[in-house]
Amino acid sequence: xxxxxxxxxxxxxxxxxxxxxxxxxxxxxxxxxxxxxxxxxxxxxxxxxxxxxxxxxxxxxxxxxxxxxxxxxxxxxxxxxxxx
Length: 84
Fold this sequence. Notes:
By secondary structure, the protein is mainly α. The protein has one domain (3-83). It contains 4 helices and no strands. It has helices at 3-24, 29-43, 47-58, 61-83. The protein starts with a helix and ends with a helix. 14% of the residues are buried.
């Protein structure tokens, strides 16, 4: 398997794990959906959609910050494993 394909697979697996972890957090469905939309939209360059999701998340600051920290941790695991 080419190196580039291996990297893409690992990234997508990590994103799937992070999305699953986000979905399992004790958040309202609206907040879960907004978080997923924020990340997906940002990754696709859809910044107006990401901005709308961020505005919804802003109202749930404490709970959202903790959840986003967990989500980002999941997203960055792959990079840390590669660096080690």
